[in-house]
Amino acid sequence: MRRMTRRRFLGTSLAAAGAAAVGGRRLYGETMPVLLGSTRLEQFDYSDVQLLDGPMLEQFRANHAYYLALNEDSLLQPFRQKAGLPAPGEPMGGWYSWSKEFDPPRNMTGYVPGHTFGQYMSALARAYAVTGDTSTREKVLRMVRGYAPTITSKFYEGYPLPCYTSDKTACGLIDAHRYAQDPMALAVLAHATDAVLPWLPPKALDRVEMAARPHPNIAYTWDESYTLPENFFIAYQISGDTRYLALAKRFLEDDTYFNPLAAGENVLPGQHAYSHVNALSSASQAYLVLGSEKHLRAARNGFGFVVDTQSFATGGWGPNETFRKPGSGDMGKSLTETHASFETPCGSYGHFKIVRYLMRISGDSRYGDSMERVLYNTILGALPMQPGGKTFYYSDYNNDGQKVYYDEAWPCCSGTFPQVTADYGISSYFHTDRDVYVNLFVPSRLEWRRAGNDVTVEQATQYPYAPEVTVRVHCERPETFTVYLRVPEWTGAGTRVTVSGKAVDAELRPGTFAAIRREWKADDRIEYHIDTPLRLEAVDAQHPTSQALMAGPLALFATGTLDGRFTRAQLLGARQRSAGSDVWLAESASGTVPFTTFPEIGEEKYRLYQETAG
Ligand SMILES: [Zn+2]
């Protein structure tokens, strides 16, 4: 039994990043200091990309509506209470409201009051930027104005995770400024930063260092000071205030994390999973703002270790929120030992974010391959938010798996869920000064306002359930440029592309972008057929017979009879019920077993990894 290995990120040449790059670019407006790190690709604005009918648009809209309807008095209550202000409204409960019951790790009620306020504000600001919906912008502005008078340093007295919550609040205020054009947000951010400063540690601390300091309870050892630099760097870029630059540098976790990662040492095992992927975005900002090659190496290597040594077939990682020792067989053992396999909304949010940084910096399409795995197999299958903050938190890859809601209301994942769904559009396309890159194959329309010539790129597809992707390119005036299409590294020999019915001279090498360069006219149509062969992936080298069935980027989950024993040939002989169907059928010793995808699973039990023989 041999694991179908993916081409590894590590040891491959991303080193050219920067060499042929566009140069220090201004990303966030005119006040921004020049960036020293260069990028090959740029992100589009939120308003440039509209999702069209499909599950991603549905999920984005559901989250937009849910968070737009949140009661503002309830959201502000924990801050008003600490400031001694009138605090009307119903408490949110769960992690969000102060509670005497808090007794970690046994009772997490009242864990981090107000922690997701900034994330809800961020998600709404991004949703406004996507939709232009004025009631959404008005809510963001009301949230900023409601929060401003509550700001007090007293808020963080006896607060176990001041870094965590202040970082999320900063993100919300930054996004209110960037995406909802709130003229007050930067002043409020400065005030909020003053308030938390006395509670920040002298430098980024890992959990061992936090445990060595006095801590009233275990939750104090879980703060995430090492994720702070990303938003401090962004605050510096949009304000020009060098105080943020100094803070960003102060909290780079060089000693125990970035230095060894940059040197190629895998220091992930034992670390908290999501926050350490999130920290890689701080390293990426250190590269962009400071030009620090060391931090780029740390981000690249760290993410490479996640993909190569920590990931399930779904693209999810970190069982029990902890990275594992490669070669230990821990990933395989987790299939019977835990149901908390992947922290889905937070993990997806962090994964999408670091992929966008590394794709922009390197132009490497394989980051997009890893993004689409996480998209189709994890976050798109998250159960929708329920009234009262009931939230989908963990994907369950246990051999006896099931989808459930988290037992506490308003956990961390309720903050990142609407953020990642608002980011779907900007994750789908990238560009240079001349050319456009199609990263995700999703029903969507890109309005690309190029100098003097508007270009529209529109995708229609049922991918990855069907292999065809139609990309219409419409130019106001004929113009020559290149449309790049991601060729996933698992694609088969049947992959092909035509433009307006004619074969084109484009190399379709798996793991690269295919370049289609031509003069584009009023209505050209690219037909891209992505061959999605079935393959098997073992959970780890120590459990070679525990195999997941993959169809292109899709992990297929057995449903119905879960004790099916398969030969490899039986799994690889599975057939899709019909073109475009979400059901595949495989024969086993005990009969035909239906397989389906994570988004299609409801309340039924399922199994990701099958026991295989032969
Ligand atoms: Zn979470």
Q: What would you note in describing this structure?
A:
By secondary structure, the protein is an alpha+beta fold. Helix content is 35%, strand content 18%. Strands 15, 16, 17, 18, 19, 20, 21, 22 and 23 form a nine-stranded mixed β-sheet that branches. Strands 2-7-8-9-14-11-12 form a seven-stranded antiparallel β-sheet. A five-stranded mixed β-sheet has the order 1-5-6-10-13. Strand 15 (534-538) and strand 16 (546-551) form a beta hairpin. The model is unreliable at 1-7 and 9-30 (pLDDT under 50).
Secondary-structure blueprint:
Blueprint lengths: L41 E2 L5 E3 L3 H14 L3 H12 L33 H15 L2 H14 L14 H19 L4 H12 L10 H6 L15 H12 L2 H9 L3 H9 L10 H18 L2 H17 L20 H8 L4 E2 H19 L3 H12 L16 E2 L17 H10 L1 H5 E3 L4 E3 L5 E7 L2 E9 L6 E8 L3 E9 L8 E4 L2 E2 L8 E9 L3 E6 L4 E5 L7 E6 L2 E6 L6 E2 H5 L2 E2 L6 E6 L2 E6 L9 E2 L1 E5 L1
Parallel strand pairs: 6-10, 18-23
Antiparallel strand pairs: 1-5, 2-7, 3-4, 5-6, 7-8, 8-9, 9-14, 10-13, 11-12, 11-14, 15-16, 16-17, 16-23, 17-21, 17-22, 19-20, 20-21
Helix pairs in contact: 1-3, 1-16, 2-4, 3-4, 3-5, 3-16, 5-6, 5-8, 8-9, 8-11, 10-12, 11-12, 11-14, 14-15, 14-16
Bound molecules: zinc ion (ZN).
Kindly summarize this structure in a few lines.
This protein has 614 residues and is of the alpha+beta class.
Number of H- or I-type helical stretches: 18
Amino- and carboxy-terminal Cα gap:
8 Å
State the total count of DSSP E strands: 23
Helix content: 25-40%
Largest sheet: 9 strands, mixed
Structural class: alpha+beta
Strand percent estimate:
15-25%
Unreliable stretches, pLDDT < 50, 5 or more residues? 1-7, 9-30
The set of bound ligands, ions and cofactors reads: zinc ion
Shape: globular
Mean pLDDT: 94
The radius of gyration computed from the alpha-carbon positions, rounded to a whole number of angstroms, is 24 Å
